[in-house]
Amino acid sequence: MNKRIILTASFFGFAAVALGAFGAHGLEGKISESHLETWETAVDYHFYHTLGLLFLATFSRAKNNYIKFSFVTFTLGILLFSGSLYLLSTRAVTGFGNPSVLGPVTPIGGLCFILGWIGLFVATIKNKG
């Protein structure tokens, strides 16, 4: 197993649980219902791709460049997609997160997620095991 992937996934897993709990208990009544739903979407995708990272660690002995690619794109996806949604949904409270800047960042993060899954698909096809 790849220690770097597991450490990254562990950190992201911790962060997803903490941010999910914060959204459920700390943001309720402080941001609009639609922004709370956006926060929940960010947490969901954060979790899905944290689990995807853990799965990538099972391929680590293959030394496959597609697995490295998926690791990088899943990580960027979590940071860009979920990160931008976290900031956008709490803008009313924090005053941080310009929608004209962060709005285009979200789909770039989504594209990173898609590319990561394609990388995993190709890695699986090329795996000789």
UniProtKB/TrEMBL annotation:
Keywords: Membrane, Transmembrane, Transmembrane helix. The chain crosses the membrane at residues 45-62, 69-88, 108-125. It is a multi-pass membrane protein. Its main location: membrane. InterPro entries: DUF423 (IPR006696). It holds the Pfam family DUF423. The keyword Transmembrane applies. The keyword Transmembrane applies. It is found in: Membrane. PANTHER family: TRANSMEMBRANE PROTEIN 256. Belongs to the UPF0382 family. This is DUF423 domain-containing protein. It comes from Parapedobacter deserti.
